[in-house]
Each structure stands twice: as structure tokens, then as C-alpha cells.
Write a structure and sequence with these properties.
Length: 765
């Protein structure tokens, strides 16, 4: 038996012999550090005056060299020594005491390089993640300290390691009962967070009796591993005598210590050093993206992350001037949260409040990107916090105020962040904030059910043209966002039952009318008294299109209950009477110029709407509730009202109103197409459509033309001035009406192009 034991021991010695000098060297450097604390009497000298930094660097080099000389994943004797003798725990204690002065910095550097340069997984070892967890608590306790740079480097390397192996984050979710752990008491790794991993690591300050997670290997004892007991006793006494007083914490209040890695990063985001703050934000970005559900829950429920994001948004928003030029808000350069650097002296286009505006937009961009990258449940919680604490708590009172300057500035800021948001989850919360969550059809008496929605839509028809234009622009950009609720809430929910139509079942005598391309009861505009003066050659023939009408196919017969596309196109092109047209006098302003833009925009809208699974054809009238009273909805009501006043409104307002309506017309939903682009829809009594609104405008125009002397020459002159073909001259009488006529003509051409493009797309297999 004894000879067998001797043989085993001999084999062990032979196996370890080649690496013995390296291990001796490692132990020598560590003992040199411990001897300093045993023998020194002057603990006030800075650490840079000692050999400690050199010894730590040598220890690190030895560990790297040892790993390089061994097979992948094999733990060498030097690493075994570091783990078994809890060297990292000892270094943590020395760093916390910062004795000698500057030791904390050296410890942080050692931890950072150890985790960064050693390839094998170290964090699963209890004698690694336990001291790492303790060291994390020391980071960010005091802002603007000399160790901030080392602190953030250390925290970021831990975040990077967790990103590589997300399950390791469970080691950093501590039990709530240990909320006083930051005072130096022992830690308990959260049982809830580890039970799913099938292992529970406990830390009571004593050696763990449980097996460590993946990566832990068996200890091999050698003579060199056994420190002389009197030396260890001396070191323990020396450490006990160190003045380990708690440093004053930063002003961020920590409700508990569940997720100290997040808490330390949150504190460092407040650093006066912008580089430190950005690195801290990057670390948080890595942590929120971890897929572990327990970490996501802890992140949002047990840390100040939600509060930090929203409180900083609120404070930066409140720091903005009461009045900022909307053009400055719109045109300030694109903001990237990581590049928030601005020098007023170097900026030739500086304006009052630009620094504050860039800071706000930069932080909003960070919140947006953080939520975009976050794990799903964390993203929802963060976005809801922004909704409740910032949108409702801070922005809504500004948007609901009565001061015109305040309304204009707050709407311009809302418009800017609507354009800027990219996260689907945050966009959803923003949409609910602006429009509410209602999806049932609107009623005239219930349009103020969501006060902010009602107020913003009312602002589209505000007495201030600037407020009207800005609010309309905000809605225009909102409609371009990839969110189905936007269009449904504003328009579609009121068109679902098609109760804007009057249903007349076809009788035998109607068949010949349908064969001629008209629905029974529809009005042929070419026979309407308003259009009797239109010459036949003013309409477009099939040959004048960019291409002929799409060919008839079995799937798309020539007559399918709708007017043929050329009749629709000509209906819009013929709306404006000949004497009120001026585009044919100017090159490059024909109807065909709108086709290319309409095709591109329609393609983009189709891509956005593809996943919303809209029907390809209108809901059958037999299945619609046509008895219900029709209300076009608050949004379309305001747009139609403004469209009806196009001859009496400023040019810029008209451009914005028609721009929003053309955006709506582009959506590939059959009910929107029918309601906005079908001139021959059989409207129910008391209902109006976009076409009927324009018809009334044209009727008013034809009466008013008769009262204006030299109408056509004046109209042409105004068009040329608007195009920059004529210099500005004396003010022309009736300028508002003349500009309105030009916008009306262009809008009709645009609608004709959209109708043609949509028909062509639906007819192409």
C-alpha cells in the first residue's frame, strides 16, 4: 500500500516538474507582495514607490505564459495557486483599503488584465466571481475619482465576458437579504437566479463545499502550495489593522444591491468625464441585451435604470429654452449618443440652446438604442417607463399648454423625436401616448376621449399657421412609421364597415351601365354642369400615359364593378377647369412627373404594410353594417375642412395639408383607396369623400374666377415666381387664391398618378 502511494506521488512530481520553475516564480512574486504588508511600517507612501505594481505585472505575465504553454482549457499550477489561495480576495481587501495609496488602481488593473488576457473561463470559479462581485461594488461609489478610468475598464471587461457567456450573469444577481453586502459582509448568490442553472453557489466567507460550475478543475496539492502558517497569520493581522473605511457613496440612491454591476455603471454614467460616461452607457447596452430572463427582471425591477433613463430625459428636456426656432430643432445635425461632443466656439451655425438641444436628442437616441437592443421583457419595461415618466409626466403638459410659442416648441420637439425613434417597442409606446389605444370607430361626441390626440388634431387647424404646419408635419412623419396602430387609429377604424357608401343592388337595367364602366347612381363628371366647358382634348388619352392601361386579365377583368383606371385618372386631371390651369405653360410640370415619385413611395408603403395582412379587396357590402352612422373621424374631418378652404389659406399650409392627404392615399388598403381615390364611389347621404370635397372647391373656384380680371396671366406669373423662373415683383391681387389654385392643380395631378400606380400594381401578377 505504501509503495503504491509512493509511486503515485512520484508520478505527480514528474508531471509537475517541467512547470516548477514558473510556479516558483509566481509564488515568489506573490510572497513579495504579502511580505510588504507584514514588514512595512510606512503605509502612507504611494504604491508607485513600491515594487507591488511590478510584482503584479510579473504574476500576470506568468499566468498568460502558463496558459500559452498548455493545452486549451487546462488549468496550470499557477492558476490553481491563485484560485486555491484566494489571491483575488486578498487583493480586493487591499484595494478597498487603498493601502498603500493607489493600490485600488493597481488591483483594478490586475483584475481587468486577468479577465481580458486569460482565455479560459474564470468567472465560473467562486474564488473569481466572488471577489469580482465585491470589487464591482467599489466602482462608481465616488464620482471624479482618480480611479474612474480603471473602474470603467474593469466593469466593461466584466460586461464583455457576460456577453460571451450570458448564463454567467446569474452569479451577479444577489439575494435581496444581502442588501448590506457593500459594507464588506459576505455575499449570497441569488438562489432564484441559479436554480434554473442547476447549481447554487453560496458564499459565506468560507470555502464553498459545492462543486463550481463549468471550468472548475480539481486541485493538485504540492509543497509549494502550502504557505508557512505564521506568514499567513502575520498577513491576516496586517490586513485586519488596515483602515478599511467606507467611502462616501455617489448621490444615486440604490434601493438594494441586487444587480451591483448595473448600479455601478449607472453611477459612472453621471461622470463629469464624457468618455467615462459613454463607456458606462456601452456597458449598460451590453447588459440589457443579455437573454437571461432573471437578469432582465432584476434589471428593470431592482435597479435605478428606468429612473436614470427617464429622469435624465426629463432634466435635459426641462433645460431647453422655452422658445427654440422649429427650423433649428428640425435641422440640427443627426445625433449619435456616443458622439455627443459640441463646441459652441467652433460652430458657425450656433443658436441659443443648441448645446442643450444636442444633449437632449443625444440622450433620447441612447434610450432608443438601449430599448432596441434590450431583451424583450426589459425593452417593454424600459419603454413603458419612458412613456409614463417622460412622455406623460413631462411632454404632455407642454403639448397641452395654451401659449402659442410653447405649443410650437413642444410640437417641434415631438416631431423631431417621432422622426428619430427606431425602436419598435418605444415607437409603440410613443404611438399610444400620442393617439391612445382606442380601436373602435370614432363618434363626433367622443373625439376628445384621448385628450392629447384631440388637442394635436385640433392644432392641425390652429389659428397660428406655424402651429398648424408643424403639427401636420408631425402627423405626416408619424404615418411613415412601421406601426399598424397609427393608420388604424387615425383613419381605418372609421372605414371598416364601408358605411360611407350607399348600397344599391344591381338590377337588370343597370347591367349596361356597369358594362360602360360606371356604377349605378354614380355621376359622370363629364356630364356634370361644372365641367361642360372642358374641351375633349384636355383629357388624357390612353396613348398619352407613360404606358397604356394594364391589359385585361382573367383575374382583373376590364369591368369589375369599378371605374376603369383611365376614367379615374382623367376624373382627377379634369377637376380643375382649363382656365384655372397653368402647368402646361411651364416645361416639366406635367402629370407624368408625379408617376416616378408615386411608384417609389407606393413601393415603400407596401413594404411597411406587408406584415399587417391587409385584405386585397374591400369587405363585401352584404357583410357591412351600412346602417351605422358614418363619421370620417376627427383626423380626416380636420383635413377635409382644411382642404375645403384651400383657396383661402396660405401656400405653405396648403402644401402641408395636401402632402398629408397624398400620404394617406398611398396606403395599399382597399377601403382607403376607395374612400380617397375612387371618384365614382356611391356616397351615402350626408357623407363626403376627398373627391367630393375637391369638387365643391372647384365649384367655388369657377364662380370666383369670373370676378378676377386677367386671371390666367396672373396665375401664370405666380406659378413662375413660385418656381423661381420670375423675380419677385409688385404684390399681385388675390395672391392667396392664385397660389391655392396652383396647389389644387398639382394635388389633382398627384392623386391621378397615385391612382394609376396603385391600379398598375394591383393588376401586375
Amino acid at each position: 500500500m505504501f509503495s503504491k502511494f509512493t509511486s503515485i506521488l512520484q508520478h505527480a512530481v514528474e508531471a509537475l516538474a517541467p512547470s516548477l520553475p514558473l510556479q516558483e516564480d509566481f509564488v515568489y512574486h506573490w510572497k513579495a507582495i504579502t511580505h510588504y504588508y507584514i514588514e512595512t511600517s510606512d503605509d502612507k507612501a504611494p504604491v508607485t514607490d513600491t515594487n507591488i505594481p511590478s510584482h503584479l505585472e510579473q504574476m500576470l505575465d506568468i499566468l498568460v505564459q502558463e496558459e500559452n504553454e498548455r493545452e486549451s482549457g487546462e488549468t496550470g499550477p499557477c492558476m490553481e495557486y491563485l484560485l486555491h489561495h484566494k489571491i483575488l480576495e486578498t487583493l480586493y481587501t487591499l484595494g478597498k483599503a487603498d493601502c498603500p495609496p493607489g493600490m485600488k488602481q493597481q488591483v483594478l488593473v490586475f483584475y481587468t488584465k486577468l479577465l481580458g488576457r486569460i482565455r479560459q473561463p474564470l468567472l465560473p470559479h467562486i474564488n473569481v466571481h466572488r471577489p469580482v462581485q465585491k470589487l464591482i461594488r467599489l466602482c462608481g461609489e465616488v464620482l471624479a475619482t482618480p480611479t474612474e478610468n480603471e473602474e470603467i475598464q474593469f466593469l466593461c471587461i466584466v460586461c464583455a465576458k457576460l456577453k460571451q457567456d450570458p448564463y454567467l450573469v446569474n452569479f451577479f444577481l444577489e439575494n435581496k437579504l444581502k442588501s448590506l453586502a457593500s459594507k464588506g459582509t459576505s455575499d449570497i448568490t441569488s438562489e432564484d437566479s441559479l436554480k434554473d442553472q442547476g447549481a447554487l453557489s453560496t458564499d459565506t466567507g468560507q470555502s464553498s463545499q459545492r462543486e463550481e460550475l463549468s471550468g472548475a478543475t480539481g486541485m493538485e496539492k504540492t509543497e509549494l502550495e502550502d504557505e508557512p502558517s505564521h506568514q499567513m497569520d502575520d498577513l491576516s493581522t496586517s490586513l485586519d489593522n488596515l483602515n478599511v473605511t467606507s467611502l462616501p457613496e455617489a448621490s444615486v440612491v440604490r434601493p438594494n444591491q441586487d444587480y451591483n454591476l448595473v448600479n455601478s455603471l449607472l453611477n459612472l454614467t453621471r461622470s463629469p468625464d464624457g468618455r467615462i460616461a459613454v463607456k458606462a452607457c456601452e456597458g449598460l447596452m451590453l447588459l440589457v441585451s443579455l437573454p437571461e430572463p432573471a437578469a432582465a427582471k432584476c434589471l428593470t425591477q431592482s435597479t435605478c435604470l428606468c429612473e436614470l433613463l427617464t429622469d435624465r430625459l426629463a432634466s435635459l428636456y426641462r433645460a431647453l429654452p422655452q422658445s427654440v426656432d422649429p427650423l433649428d430643432i428640425e435641422t440640427v445635425e443627426a445625433i449619435n449618443w456616443g458622439l455627443d461632443s459640441y463646441s459652441h466656439k467652433e460652430d458657425a451655425s450656433a443658436f441659443p440652446g443648441k448645446r442643450a438641444l444636442i444633449s437632449f436628442l443625444s440622450w433620447f437616441d441612447y434610450c432608443d438604442q438601449l430599448i432596441k437592443e434590450a431583451q424583450k421583457t426589459a425593452a417593454v419595461a424600459l419603454a413603458r417607463a419612458v412613456h409614463e415618466r417622460f412622455f406623460i409626466g413631462v411632454m404632455e403638459p407642454q403639448l397641452m399648454q395654451t401659449s402659442e410659442m410653447g405649443i410650437l416648441t413642444s410640437t417641434a420637439l415631438l416631431h423631431r423625436i417621432v422622426r428619430q425613434v427606431t425602436s419598435d417597442v418605444l415607437l409603440q409606446e410613443m404611438v399610444f401616448f400620442i393617439l391612445g389605444e382606442q380601436r373602435e370607430p370614432e363618434t363626433l361626441s367622443g373625439i376628445s376621449r384621448h385628450p392629447l390626440r384631440h388637442r394635436l388634431i385640433e392644432h392641425c387647424d390652429h389659428i397660428s399657421d406655424e402651429i398648424s404646419i408643424m403639427t401636420l408635419r408631425m402627423f405626416e412623419h408619424l404615418l411613415q412609421k412601421p406601426n399598424e396602430h397609427i393608420l388604424y387609429n387615425l383613419v381605418l377604424r372609421n372605414l371598416e364597415e364601408r358605411n360611407y357608401t350607399e348600397y344599391k343592388p344591381l338590377c337588370l337595367e343597370d347591367k349596361d351601365v356597369v358594362e360602360n364602366g360606371l356604377i349605378a347612381g354614380a355621376v359622370d363628371l363629364e356630364e356634370d354642369p361644372l365641367f361642360t366647358d372642358i374641351a375633349p382634348d384636355n383629357t388624357l388619352s390612353n396613348q398619352e400615359w407613360l404606358s397604356s392601361s394594364p391589359p385585361t386579365t382573367p383575374d382583373h377583368p376590364k369591368t369589375d364593378g369599378k371605374t376603369e383606371v383611365h376614367k379615374t385618372v382623367n376624373s382627377f386631371l379634369c377637376l380643375v377647369p382649363d382656365e384655372a390651369k397653368s402647368s402646361y405653360h411651364v416645361e416639366g410640370t406635367g402629370y407624368d412627373t408625379y408617376l416616378r415619385d408615386a411608384h417609389r413611395q407606393f413601393r415603400d408603403y407596401c413594404a411597411i404594410c406587408l406584415r399587417w395582412e391587409w385584405p386585397g379587396s374591400p369587405k363585401a357590402l352584404e357583410k357591412c353594417n351600412l346602417e351605422a352612422a358614418f363619421f370620417e373621424g376627427h383626423f380626416l374631418k380636420v383635413l377635409f375642412d382644411r382642404m375645403g378652404r384651400i383657396l383661402d389659406q396660405p401656400y405653405d399650409v396648403n402644401l402641408q395639408v395636401t402632402s398629408v392627404l397624398s400620404r394617406l392615399s398611398l396606403f395599399p388598403h382597399p377601403h382607403i383607396h376607395e374612400y380617397l381615390l375612387d371618384p365614382y364611389v356611391n356616397l351615402a347621404s350626408g357623407c363626403r369623400s376627398l373627391f367630393s370635397v375637391i369638387v365643391r372647391v372647384v365649384g367655388d373656384l369657377m364662380v370666383r374666377i369670373q370676378r378676377i380680371q386677367d386671371f390666367t396671366p396672373k396665375l401664370l406669373l405666380v406659378r413662375k415666381r413660385l418656381l423661381g423662373l420670375e423675380p419677385e415683383g409688385p404684390i399681385i391681387d388675390h395672391i392667396t387664391l392664385l397660389e391655392g389654385v396652383i396647389v389644387l392643380e398639382e394635388f389633382c395631378k398627384e392623386l391621378a398618378a397615385i391612382a394609376f400606380v396603385k391600379y398598375h400594381a394591383s393588376s401586375t401578377p
